[in-house]
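Example 3.2
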Amino acid sequence: MPSPFLPVNVSVDAPPRGPGTQAARTFSSQTARATFAWGSAPGEATISYIGDAPVTRGAMVLLTIGAHFFGGICQSDTRKKSSGGANRELRFVDFREFLQWDYTFCAFNKEYARTVNGVRQKRYWSMLPLNHGNGIKTFHSVPYSANQIVALVLGARAPAGTIGTSWTYDPTGGGLFPQGCLNSPVYDFDCLGGKRLDGALSEICERTGTVFTLISSPQNYYLLRFSRKGYAAVGSPLPWAPFPTNSDGRIYGEALSGNASDVRVLGERNRYQCLELTMVPDWPAAWQQFLDLTQFIDDIFARGTNPLTNQRYNAYPGDVEFYRGYQDAAARGKMITVREYVALRNGSPLAGEPANDGNRFIDHRKFSGRSRMDMPAALYLQTLVLRAFRPAVAGIVNATGASLPLESLDLVSEQVCRVDYVPETGVMSAAVSEPADSNGLAIVKGYNVSADLWRQVRSDQFNPALFTAANAIWSAAPFQIDDSGEGVKFIIFDEPVFVCDNLLTAVDGQAVLNANFTLTIPAVKAALTFEAERYSQWFSVNAAGVVVAGRSNTSRDMVENAAGLRMEISGNADGTGQAEIAYADGLYAYQKAYDLAVAALLRQFTYAEGGYKLEWDPAQPVAGFGVALSSLHDRIEITHGPQGTWERIDFTNERQRDGFEPERDLDRRSIQTSLFPGQQQLREEAEAHRKISAVFRGFTPRLLDLFSRMVTGQLLPGDFGYVSFAGPTAVPLKAGTPLWKIATDTSGNYNTNTRATNPFYPLEAEQKVFLGVTVREGEDMRKPALPFQRAPGQALARVQGPVEVNDDIGRELGQDYLKKGGSPGVGKALAAITDTSVKLIPCQFGAGGGGGLEMFRLKSVQEDYITCRTWDGTTEGTTDVFIAKNTETRFPASDVIAGETWSYTYVAGADALNKYRDAVSGAITESQVVTPYWLADGVIFAMAAAHTGVKKVPPGAAPNPEVELTRLIVTSRCWAKRA
C-alpha cells in the first residue's frame, strides 16, 4: 500500500558563494512550502524537520517535491523547542538571490553619428562588460539585440568580469518560441555607472515585453528562462481544458483585460522639404538706401546731434575735416535702435524729405524672439538688410491634401534629402535616395558668381560685359535659419546678397566705383524643410484578428507615442511631386507605425482568470506530481504537511506586449541670452569709438574700402576721408579728380578750413593743400560728406598726358586733373599716357617729386612735433613752422608691442634735442634714444598730409582751439636701445 505522504528530500552542501562551511547531508522534511513564479524576485521555500543539527546560512539547499526541483540557499535557520519536542524551521530563497549580489558595468547601442563624404551616417557604440575597466568602446552599424546583450552580460564572469555565478539562459521560453523572444534591439542601454544584475535583466525584459524565471534542475541549477506570458504552443490544450480529475477549488472566468482594440500611433511632426520656394526680402525697402553701415553712419552724421553737447556732429567747433564728429556719429550709429532712428528721422528731416519719412523704416516683426524695433539699427543693417528673406507662399499642402498656413509651421535646419539645381535656369530637383547634412538650399540669381568675379577684378583687367552677364547665373549661398521669432520664420544669408549691374564702371580701361549705382534685390529661391502636423495613424483589429489601418466604430482606444517616427517628404509647396524619404532600413513611416500597432494590439481584449488546487494522489507516481511553471501560469505554490500534499496553480492568459522600441533622438536647445546676438560686440565697438573721438584712427574695413582695394589691387585698406565743398555745383565729379583746399578759411585761424575747393574754380596759389582724389564716378559735390581717398598712398587719378612712368605730377590750376611737372607736386605717375588726353591712371601720392617734399632746418624738438624754419639750401626763413613727428619718434606714455605692454619715463638726454627714455616691460628695463640723433640746424624733409593726428595752438591764435598740423616729417628715425 503506497504511503499517504509525499516524500520531500532536502540536500544541503557548502555555500556556493560567500563565507562559511557546511557538510553535505540529506534529510526529509516534516512540512514544506515552496513557490515558483516569474520575475527577478527570488522564489521562497520553508521547511521544518525534527533534529538539532543547524544549517549554515548561505549553504546550498536543493529540494525535491514531486516533479518540482527547488535550488537555492539557506536564508535563515530557526530552532523551535516545546513540551512536544524540538524541531528546526529553515527558510530558503532560490538562486535568483545571487542576481542581487552582482553588478554589471557596460553600455549598449548608444547612438553615434558621423559624416562621411558629406553624408551623415548613423552608427552605435557599446562598451562591453569586459572592456569597461579600460574604457574601450566598440563601434558598430547594427545594434546589439537583447539576446546578445544578455549573453555578454551573463558571460562577464569573475575575475575578468563582475558576475560571480555561472548563469545560463534559455531565450525560447522552453521551446515555445523557437526563434527566441529576445531578438529585438535594446537602445541606449546604459549601465556605465553600475547596475545590479537583477535590475539590468528586468530592464531588458521590460523593454522587450518578456519575463524571466529560474528553472533549476539536478543537471543545471542556474538556468534563467525568458518567455512571454499568455502564449501556448500551437495545438496544446489550455490548462483548464479539462481540469485534472484530482483537482479541487476550480475557478475559471473571463475579464476585461483593459487592453485596447484600437491604437493611434502618434509620432513627431512630419517634415516637408519644399522645393522652388520663392523668397522675398524680410525688411522694409527703405533700409536698402544704406548699402552698408558706413552709409548709415553718414546719415547719422548729417542729421544727428550729440546728446551730451547738443551739437550737430557735422558742426563741431574746430573739428578739422570732421574727425571727432564722425567718430561720435559712428558711436551713436552703433547704439541707436530702430525705434530711436525712426524718431530721429521723423524729428530731423533733411532737405527734400517728406514729413514722417521715418515711418518707412518701421518693422514690427521679431528677431531672436524680440521686436526688431528694439534692435540696434547697426545690428539690423548687418544682420537683416540684404540678408533676411522669407517664403513668399502663404502655406503648404501636406500629405493628406490639407492646406497649412506658414504661421503654424516651423523651419528646421535639416534637409531630408539632397537637392540639386541647374545653374542656368535655377530649376531644382530632389535626390530622395541620398541624404544631406545641411540646413537647406538657397540659390541666388547672379550674386555668388558676381562675388567670385569681385575677387578677381583688377583695375586694368575689367570686362563690364562679363561682370554683367554673371547676373544671369544661379548659384548657392550659405544661410542660417532664425527659428526663435513668431509668425513666419525666415532665413539669414551669411553675407549680404544683391545684384548691381552698374556698381563698377570702366573709365579708360580702369574699373572704378559708380557713385550713382542702382542696387536691386536678386531673385532668390530655396528648398527649405518645415515641421508641420504630427504623424498620426489609426489601427484596429478586425474580426479575423488581423491588425489593419483605420478605426473601428466601437473601440477601446489607446495612444502609442513613438519618438523619431515621422514622414519626411520632398516636393513642392502646392503638394505636387511629393515623395516620401525612406528610413535607413528602407522602411517608411507607415510600416514603422504598423509594427508598433501590432505590438500594442495583439493582446486579448478579454482574458482568462482563475486556477485550481491539485491534490496528490498516493496512487500517482511521486515524480509525476506537479505542474511545471509555463507561459500560461502566473504562480505555483506547493504545500506539504501532515494533512497531505497539494499545490495551487494560478492562471495567466493576459499577454504582455511584444518587444519593440523605436530609436530616440533628442534635440537640445540653448537658453536665449539677454542680448541680441552681436549686440555686446556693438556696445564694445561703440565704446571704442568714444575713446578715440579726439584722435582719428580710421574705420574697420567696410564695403567701400573693400571695393576700392579690389579695384586698385592694394593689399592694405585705403585711408578714406569725408569732405564737404566750398561752392558746390551740380556738375558731377569724375573718379580720380584731385581735391585741394587752402590752409586757412579765416585770417588768423591756422588750417581751419574743412572744405575742399570746387575743382572747376580757378585755383589760387595758396590753395596748395592736397587732400586726395575722388574714388567714385559721378560724385555729387553737393552732398554734406563726400568720400575721397587720402594721400599718401596709391590711387587712380586723372592725369593729362603726355607722361611717362615715374614722372612727377602735380597741380594744374583750374582743372580737375593733374599733369606732369605741376606745382605743387603730389606724387608720381605709375602708367604712361602717350598723347595729350586726360586719362585715369594709377598714381603714387606722397612719393615726392618736385614740390611734393619741402626742406627745412631743425630748431627744436617737442614731444609730438618739431619746430623748423624753411630752408632752400642757402637762405633760412624767419617764421617757425611746426611739423608733426612720425609715430615712431613721438613721446607716448605707454605702448603695446607684439602683445607686450611697455611704459615710458622721459629724462634729460645728451642735449636739449635728444631726450632719453626708460622703457619698462615686466622684468625688462632699457634706456632708449631716438636714432639717428636730432642735429641742430639739421636738414629736415616734410610733406603735406591731410591727417597727422598732432594738434597745436598756433602762435598768436589764442584763445582759439588746437588745430591739426598739416605737415609730416619724412624720416627713418625711431626709438632704439642705447648702446
